[in-house]
Amino acid sequence: MSVAGPRHPGTPTYGDVNRDVLATLRPPGNLYFAWMSIVGLLLTCFVLAWTYQIFIGMGAAGKRTPQMWAMYITTFVFWIGIGHAGTLISAVLYLFRARWRTSIYRGAEAMTIFAVMTAGLFPLIHAGRMWFAYFLLPYPNQRELWPNFKSPLVWDVFAISTYLSISTVFFIVGLIPDIAALRDASTGWRRRIYAMLSLGWEGSDSQWRHYRRAYGLLAALATPLVLSVHSVVSWDFAMALVPGWHSTLFAPFFVDGAIFSGFAMVLILVLPMRYYFNLHAYIQDRHLDAMAKLILVTGLVLTYFYACELFTSWYSGDHFEKASLFWRLTDTYWWALATMYFCNCVAPLILFWKKARTSPFWLYVVSILVLIGMWFERFNIIVPSLGHDFYPYTWGIYVPTITDSTIVIGSFAWFFLLFLGFIKVMPSLSVVEVKETLPPPMKDATHGAHH
Amino acid sequence: MAPTTSTVVGVFAHVDTTVRALEELRAKGYHDLTVYTPLPVHEIEDVLERDRPVSRVRVFTLLGGIIGLIAAWLLTQWTSLTWSLFVGGKPPIGFPVSPPYIVIMFEMMVLFGGIATLIGMVVLGRLPKFRVSPSYDPRFTNDRFGVAVHCAPERIPSVRDILGGAGAEEVRA
Question: Which end of chain A is less congested by CB atoms within 10 angstroms, N or C?
Fold first, then answer.
């Protein structure tokens, strides 16, 4: 490369970026297919379990009054939460010009879309007769029956479908110039497909002009959307009168937890990508450090919310609220609560140490614990609250069955199937945005100084 | 097509040489330029955007957002009136809006605004492009910058001189 200028020897050039990102699309090895086989097997179990549930009925999923939400809605909220980090990185951090986002944002955006697609399965599975799922949408019909727009469940339909659509638009817009780079580097049928997908992008000044403006506007639109989606999901609970749910704390509490778990999932996906694709030059320790700091901060905020939740329940003086809380802390599900407190409040504290923030091993351990903790958080909100509300004759505990456990585990297979597929057909690192963080090639060394 | 205009393309490896060529071309009165870059570069945008209005994508976004907002308002209010029920002691609709409908209106505003932005980008950027422009080169999505000058045929030599003098690696007409 004939590139002069103030450049550290280890800094990649633009050409290196293209080469390294394209290298991630090389035909995969045995390890990849081994993972795909495990994922495929789990997904088959998922399909069989769902089929069984459709055949038998919702009883197969352990649904008995009062535990009608149980694991499906828990896992639904969990996946929606995972889906938060992507658009947070691509919209909020874009507006704040946090440059460390560039090397992880594509993977995070893909994760968002796949997580929301996974979450979207659960209302269908949970609805039982999922072929009537279109009842959720406001479609014109002869009897003039419409959804109740005052219901938080309908808000949720709108929030999640908007979130999925806008995240997808964001993802596609970001991909266009990168697919053009892929097109120019490939041959044969791949070239033709990439040429179609890139919409014939050439990177001319007029294309970039509108592209940049559109990207900024999308980020501005998506920023409030990120905050709204999990708020709306939280209102599914908070608008109800059930003790343990009826709280104004829920919206910020959910949004914070979503970012917390989302970043944990980003790390779980990014660390192996960095290792297997050898992307150490792009996903550096400082990127891991920045993500770990975000996990730490959101974890501390979450701890504060937990304390608030306990305090407001106790201080409310409301008999049912206090009884529900006491039951949750001491009876059947106390172990789930203890797991949640350990995973979400104690485990991330190790990230106070800089060594842990840059160590893939500790980051991985913390991330997995955070995901477990956040799944249990939603479980602890849903199951114990429903199990112990106003009247003793409506109390009841929930016991998982093989069917719903398989479906919950299978949802991870569905997510990883999509993600593993994605990293082999699309650039999982943004070619354009990574280049933006590199020093631009200058012939005259003095010009590069202001960067 | 009669060759009333020709195109000269200069391929550059550096940002500063590209900027130098652009400044020089503009100083000499060549304004019909197409610049290809693998990424948006501030230095190049600063030269090009000097006399251009801001991209009109924002008009699309604004209109999309307003349409979404109004559509959601009409949908929620009208459907509530087709089956007027007092729920929880509250009237079926409120003026200007019932608080629960704000959520729907917000979501629809973002949805329509976002999709309109995408449409705006595609329409204004003249996408999809089915034919490769003659001045395009695959290196422009990798690590080279391209300056295509659209000029009268007799001006080709002087444009070549400007591009070459500014430091182009390669100049072709």
Answer: N
Model pLDDT for residues A352-387, shown as the tens digit of each residue: 999 999 999 999 999 999 999 999 999 999 999 999
Please answer yes or no on whether B132 and A202 come within 8 Å at the CB atom.
yes
The verdict on B10 and B27 lying in the same domain is: yes
| CATH number of residue A262's parent domain | 1.20.1630.10
Distance of residue B39 Cα from the nearest chain A Cα, in angstroms: 5
Q: Whole-model pTM?
A: 0.93
Residue B1 lies in a domain: no
Window 3-42 of B: residues touching A by CB (8 A cutoff) are 13-17, 33-41
CATH number of the structural domain spanning residue B47: 3.30.70
In this structure, the answer to whether residues B116 and B64 fall within a common structural domain is yes
B159 within domain boundaries: yes
Q: How many H-runs (helices) and E-runs (strands) does chain B carry?
A: 5, 4
Which residues on chain A are in Cβ contact (under 8 Å) with B41?
440
Indicate whether A450 belongs to any domain.
no
Reading the block at residue B91, the tokens are 């009237």
Contact B124 A172 (CB under 8 A): no
Distance separating alpha carbons of residues B43 and A49, to the nearest angstrom: 58
Contact A209 B133 (CB under 8 A): no
pLDDT digits (tens, 9 = 90+) for B49-62: 887 888 899 999 99
Q: Which domain holds residue B48?
A: 6-53+132-172
Task: Say how far apart CA A102 and CA A434 lie, in whole Å.
Answer: 6
Q: What is the pLDDT of residues A194-207, one digit of tens each?
A: 999 999 999 999 99
pLDDT tens string B95-120: 888 888 999 999 999 999 999 999 99
In the predicted model, is pLDDT for residue A144 greater than 90? no
Expressed in angstroms, the distance from the first to the final Cα of chain A is 21
A203 contacts B38? CB cut-off 8 A: yes
Angstrom distance (rounded) from CA B115 to CA A424: 27
pLDDT in tens, A104-121: 889 999 999 999 999 999
Q: Is residue B85 included in any domain, yes or no?
A: yes
Please indicate, yes or no, whether residues B64 and B109 belong to a single structural domain of this protein.
Answer: yes
Residue A258 pLDDT > 70: yes
Domain limits for position A119: 14-435
The structural domain count of chain B equals: 2
Residue A145 vs residues A118, A187, B83: alpha-carbon distances, Å: 29, 53, 8
